[in-house]
Every structure is written in structure tokens, then in C-alpha cells.
Fold these 3 entries.
Entry 1:
Amino acid sequence: MKYCIIGGDARIREVARLLEADGDAVCAIGHGDALPRAENAQDADIVLLGLPTSRDHKTIYAPFGDETISYDTLLGLLNRKARVFCGMPDAALAARFRTAGILFTDYFEREELAVLNAIPTAEGALALAMEKLPIAMHHANCLVLGFGRIGKYLAHILKGMGAHVTVSARRASDMTWIEAYGYHATDTKNAKEVADKADVIFNTIPSLVIDAAFLDRVRPSVPIIDLASMPGGVDTAYAEKSGKTVLSAQSLPGKVAPKTAGEAIFRTIKNILQEDFHESTPCAQKRRE
Ligand code: NAP
């Protein structure tokens, strides 16, 4: 397969390395001389854009490039038959692809990528906690809000280090699993009641759960590590006013483990292509008839 990479950061460079190692041909726009340069993507089978695809909703995210690639420029570079893989394209770009009849897939929507990203996110959060805490994680009281992908993996590694782990959830089934794994369970809406015991608090819930009443129960020196996507889960104005220690930790996979994060994108794209291939076989077509 011939890939043309347009923009993207260190994670996409790792994808390029793995594609080449897998026998694929790779050229790139927006990577200087670090990858074989392309003038356009006309002869590419697959076009790969970064994560996120854009940061300003106008141009392609290409931090290593010297050129600005507007959405118009991008559309002009593409061969209409190419398959485009992009991470979190905004509505405007998605609409442009649809109008131009370009087949695109948002690889960030795939569950395996979310799970693979949860691992470096949890590790990055743990590193932050260790940097901020004056005590060892062993026997530290850790409160994890949310028992989704990140919450599950974070609780697992914290317990592995000998921490006392309390995890919050809102579903009875999750509360039962939390207990089954040997953590203390608390209903998210009651989590503030255990906040005063915590040496560190990790939030993974993308909703305002650490409100003023919660913050009033937290000791000022206790790091509150907010992992949820912006605007996060903390009343930051009240936290600042009341002198609490809030650390907003965004985009950790790309920051703490770009190679691992790149490998996760590579695996995800290969999975999608393999599924497409199986779906297009005569057997699969017959099954659908
Ligand atoms: P997830 O698997 O969807 O887990 C989210 C958890 O929050 C679940 O336990 C969910 O409960 C709970 N939750 C959601 N809305 C809630 C509400 N209104 N009240 C109470 N509980 C609620 O998500 P994830 O993959 O773990 O990611 C968590 C957050 O981190 C997301 O915002 C994600 O975008 C972000 N993220 C951050 C980084 C980083 O570097 N900081 C990296 C990747 C992802 P239910 O299961 O009951 O819905």
C-alpha cells in the first residue's frame, strides 16, 4: 500500500516508521525532511492525517511542517479514490470530505484506540501524582472518580503499587466490579464524603463532579489530577479561590509516550483495513445477501 501522511506529530512519525517496517511505502507532507517528501497525495492509496486533524478548525495540524495546510489546500492534494484516515476531524472538514465524495474514517472513534490510550494516560497520571506527592504511593489513599477505561486501568496500577484505592461509579454493576477487584467502591454522587481521606484524587469523569461542596472536603495540599477532556470535571474557579491544587492533565499519551501512542494508531488503522478486507470478500458479501 502507498501511504501519504499529511501533518501530525511524533505519534504519526511512529506510525510512518511502523508502516515502513511492515512493507508499506510512505511519503509525507508537513514533516520537513524527516520523512520522504511528497508534493501531493495523488498516487496514494491511503492518506493519513494526525490526531487531532486540526487544532484551529481551519488548517491541518502539522507542527513539524514549515507550510500551512488549509482545508482547501488539503482537498486539492487528495486523489478522490484515496481512503482517508483522520483523528477527530471537525464537522467542517467532515462535511468537506462528504461533499467531495472522499471516504474517510475517524480512527479516534475506535474502541481499541481508546483502550490503548488509557494505558499511557493512566501511567502519565501516576507519574504526575508521584512528582507532586511527598509520600510513596504504597499505602497512599487514592480516590479515582469514574470506572471507565482510564479509571479501570489506573485503579489496577495503583493497587499494584500497594495504594489504598477507592473508585467511584454511578452504576450498581460497576460498583460490584470495583469491589470484586478489591478496591473500595463509592457512588460518584457520594464521593465527596470520602474526599477528606484522599492523599490524591484522579478525575476521569467528563462532567462537573468536583464541585464547591466536594472541594470544601479536600485538603489544600492534595493534588487533584483532572484527566477528563476539557472543560474537565473540576470547578476550577472555586478551586483557585479556595487554594486547592488542581492539575489539568490533557493529551497525556502524546506527551508521555508518543511511540506507544503511535503504535496504537498504527494497530487501529491496520485493524480497520483488515475488517474492510474481510467485509469485501465474496463470502462476506454472500452472508449479507
Ligand atoms: P469512559 O470509558 O467513557 O469512562 C468515563 C467514566 O465516567 C465512566 O465511568 C462513566 O460512567 C463516567 N461518567 C461519565 N459521565 C458521567 C456523569 N455525568 N456522572 C457520573 N459519571 C459519569 O472514558 P475514558 O476513556 O476513561 O476517558 C475519560 C475521560 O478522559 C474522557 O473525557 C476522555 O476524553 C479523556 N481522556 C483524557 C486523556 C488525557 O490525556 N487526559 C486521554 C484519553 C482520554 P458510565 O460508564 O456509567 O457512563
Entry 2:
Amino acid sequence: MHIFILTGAGISAESGLDTFRNSKSDGLWCRYDPFELATPEAFRINPELVLEFTNELRRRACAARPNPAHLALSDFAKSLVEFASSCTLVTQNVDDLHERAGATNVIHMHGEISKARCTKCEAVQPCRSDLSTSTRCVHCDEVGSMRPHLVWFGEMPLRMDAITKSLSESDLLVTIGTSGTVYPAAGFISDAKNRGIKTCEINLEPAFDKSVVDKSYYGPASECVPMWCRDQLAEIRALMS
Ligand code: OAD
């Protein structure tokens, strides 16, 4: 069995990181304008403002700790081996809490806040401290060419070939803590449904139309994800026996 897992900001909410949207209207994009802070044009017009915003996001992401949802997913992925099964973990999150919980081969389709990229030589490098308009690229020595390794609005998500292949080979797709607002990730669940792949949604509240959701767990990720992992392993175990 192959399981495709898509995570969003909701899985990191209980680690203290802001979501972008929520029903209380206090998500990041309710307080800030994404067009001033998360587009290539915004970076060209006001790089200081964009870097200040992303520096703060990086500081918070570095200070956060994985929560029981991240830890359960990492253990779940390891347990699958015993049942000749596997999963692909795709995240829209730019934090590295999945990795710090022990997950490997995580696909960060919207980039990673703890990496920076040189706009001159395109080299990607680790970055855990603030970037400024005078940061030097350690690869090509250019000054002022570094940007966060993030996918901004209007840019192409990363590793779409691997994502599309993995989705097409899956038996089950699970979404965790995503509002299903930003494409292409927002369309994965209906793509899966159209191909006859089973679907499951884990969220505080329903984000997708119930016509595309076969199974659901509604509540905090820190409770629902460990519960889903236990249920799913029990189901696979029963199938194998
Ligand atoms: P959103 O902020 O749009 O949605 C967060 C979802 O998590 C909502 O549906 C909440 O109900 C849910 N949620 C909040 N707290 C939760 C909890 N404790 N347990 C379970 N669920 C919870 O986040 P994404 O869908 O990830 O893109 O946003 C997608 C993209 O929009 C982001 O990657 C980012 C943003 O603009 C870029 O920056 C390109």
C-alpha cells in the first residue's frame, strides 16, 4: 500500500506557528498582505520589508518544536516498512518540524525557510540566521543576491514531477491541517477522488467538500493524527493477516 500525505500549516499550529487562514480571521494573511510580502514583485520593490518578514518567520520556525502530530507521522512512516507499505510526505509548510520529528524524504513543495538561494548562481544553502540586502553568497561571492528559498505567489511549486508520480501511485491520500485554498495542492484531493484513490481529511473543521472526502478526523492535529496513524496501521495489519 502506498499512502500520500499532504500537510499544511494546521499541523504546526500547536507548535506555536501561525496558520495563514482560519475561521477566527486571525491567520497571517488576515494580518498581513501577501502581495506586499510574498511575491517576486514585492521582493523586487521592497526587499528590506520582505526580508524582515521572512526573518521573523524563520526565527519563529527555528524556535518551535515538533508536536505529537509530527512525531506520530514520523513513527508511522517507519512502521509501514514492516507491512511492505510506504508513504510520501508532501508538505506546504516551510518549517522543518517534520524532519526534526525524524521524518525523512519530506517534499517541501513551497520551499524551506531554513534555506536561502542565490538569485545569481542559484545555489541553495542552509540559512538559520537573518538575511539582509548585504548578505554575501558563499558560493559565488555576490553581495545582495540572497533570497529565502520559498515559493512565493506566482512562482512554480517545487518537485511537482515527483509529487504527481507519487499521487498517481497511491492507494490513499490524507490531508492534514490544510485549508485547501492554494493550488495546485488544493486540487490533490479531488484528483485523487477522480482516480479512485481513497481520501481522508484531518483538520480542526471540514475544509473540503464532503463529496471528495471518504473518511475524516475533525479536531486538533496533535490528537487526530496519532489516532489516524493507529487506525491506519490496524487496518493495514488486518489486510495483511
Ligand atoms: P492555511 O493557513 O490556509 O490553513 C490551515 C488549516 O489548518 C485550516 O484549515 C485550519 O482549520 C487548520 N488547523 C488550524 N489549527 C489546526 C490544528 N491544531 N489541528 C488541525 N488543523 C488545524 O494553511 P495551508 O493550507 O497550509 O503558501 O496554506 C497553504 C499555503 O498558503 C501555504 O503553504 C502558504 C500560504 O499562502 C505560500 O506561502 C506559497
Entry 3:
Amino acid sequence: MMRKPFIAGNWKMHKTSVEAAGLAREVVERVGDVTNVEIAVCPPFTDIPAVREVVAGTNIGLGAQNMHWAQEGAYTGEISATMLLTLGCNYVILGHSERRTYFHETDETVNRKVVAARTAGLIPIVCVGETREEHERGVTNQVVETQVRGAFAGLDPDQFGGIVIAYEPVWAIGTGLVATAGQAQEVHRFIRDILGELFGDGLAEGTRIQYGGSMKPENAGELLAQPDIDGGLIGGAALTAGAFEGIIRA
Ligand code: PGA
């Protein structure tokens, strides 16, 4: 099964809208010609309109980093899937470990968001991954399995089709530590097997599973060469157009 590699930049809380438009322009200049890799950038909410102006009509997709599960309502400070969609977003990152750690997101809220994103027509990039402590205790598979089953609870195969997963070992995010290609491959295969149980082998084999956590041009080639690693969710290295390009061309 051919899965088109998918590289997405998670800009986190970086860049004012002017800076974000500048970075987006550099990204378009460098990788605007790439057709064999799906590419997206996920700037902060407030930068989305400025970045959209730059990437509209190019091969660079646009995503957000979070959203609320309700369509609208009394949720001060929150943003809905429809709001993102009407701003030109195609993707939304859900359940990033920073959201789970600092903003108390749980598998249950991630699940509600996944359903809302799907219903609205956004492609969720659902993040899972174990902490350093869990990694050292050897419970990676249990943690990841609980997160995967939790995030997709109640979904039928039709709703699941098209969803992207990012395996991000928390101990590798922003730390410079990277899972070895072999370690990451094992977890990716494990995730795909769970998806097979939940939604059938056809959908499981067609699902892109990105790796995230200190991916850089220097290590991207080896990670992306693994049979079950279908792309990357890139934090730090996505803030430099040259490094982002290096990963895409790896
Ligand atoms: P990093 O972040 O590439 O800076 O480790 C990845 C992520 O958090 O998505």
C-alpha cells in the first residue's frame, strides 16, 4: 500500500503574523515544487489569515494546533472547527502532548475533538506518545494503545478514514533526543496493528503515521525510510525554512 508521505510543521506559539507570513513565503519558495510529499504548516490561530494569503493556491496546506469540540457557544477563548475551516484550514493537530500536559487534555476530550473535526471536514492529526518516565518503565505500548483507543472511541471506519496520527515520544519533543529509527518503527507498527483491529486492515494500511520529536534534516532520512513511518510532525526545525526543506527532501 502506497502512503503519500506527509510532513507538517507545528509552529507552536512562535511568530507574529508578519513573521509567520515571511516564513510561509520562504517555505513556498523552497518546497513549492514538491509533489511527492504532502506538506502543511500549522501556525498560531492569529497567524492563520496571513499565512493563508501566502499558501493559497500552492501545494502547502494549512492547519491549526487545537480547537474546541463544540460548534459554537459560551467557551471563552476557544475556537471551533467551522471557524478554522472558513479560514482555509484543512488540518488540525489534536491532543499534542503539550496540550495534554499543560492544558489538561484527556483521551476523552481528544476523542470529542476528533469527532467534531471529522464532522466539520477537517483532517485531524492526532498525537500520541509516552512520557520519559513511562518510556523508562517500559510501558510505551500500553500508554500508546490507551491513547489510540481513547482518541478513536466510537468512530466508525467511515469517520476514521483519512485521519493522520503522529507518534511523538514526549521525551523526544524539543529535547534533541530522538527515538532510534528502529524504536519508532516498532511503535508505528504497533499503532497500525491496533488500527487494523479497530477499523480493518485496509484502512490501517492506508493511514499515515507521522513521527514527531526532534526530527531534523540529519535524522529524517533514516526515520522516514522505515516501512511504517509515513512522515513527520516537526516543531523546532519547522521554524527555519531551510531545515523544514531538508526534512521534506530527505
Ligand atoms: P520538535 O517538536 O520537533 O521541536 O521536537 C515536535 C512536536 O512537538 O510536534
